[in-house]
Amino acid sequence: MEFQKDNSFIKGRLKSVVYALKGVYKLLVTEHSVMIQFSLGILISIAGFYFDISKNEWLIQTLCIGLVLSIEGLNTAVEKVADFVHPDYHEKIGFIKDIAAGAVFFAALTAIVIGMIIYVPYIIN
């Protein structure tokens, strides 16, 4: 089956949205780290309603949740491509996968620090 580009602007954008939603679904049902991070995002959002955080705190919190999930999605894509290209262990593939995982770690650590900055004052008071 040959790929055919859709030249209709609106139809092409709608197809892109469908592909993106398929990707979100695949991430949520197959990747345990995404399942956990998505669940944490929901829990922290519930905490936001409970503590009645400010509009700016909501903006930053939402950005952090999106950042972590996005970077995790990219990490998963890198891992899948690497495994497809070289299914057996290879030192260079391991190096690439470690770097991608490190990016997720930076994003998650940043989100944790921001979460603490937002919520610790609410918890203490």
Protein architecture, described:
The chain has one domain: Helix Hairpins, CATH 1.10.287.3610. It has four helices and no strands. Helix 1 crosses helix 2.
Morphology = flat
Q: Which CATH architecture would you pick?
A: Orthogonal Bundle
Gap between N and C termini, in Å? Answer: 62 Å
Main sheet summary:
none
**Topology as a string of helices (H) and strands (E):** HHHH
Q: What is the tally of beta strands?
A: 0
Number of domains: 1
Return the CATH class.
Mainly Alpha
Structural class: mainly alpha
Q: What is the overall pLDDT average?
A: 94
User: In percent terms, what proportion of residues is strand?
Assistant: under 5%
Helix amount, in percent?
over 70%
Please give the radius of gyration in angstroms.
Answer: 18 Å
Low-confidence stretches: none
Would you tell me which CATH topology applies? Helix Hairpins
Q: Work out the helix count.
A: 4
Topology overview:
Blueprint: H1 9-30, H2 32-51, H3 55-85, H4 91-124
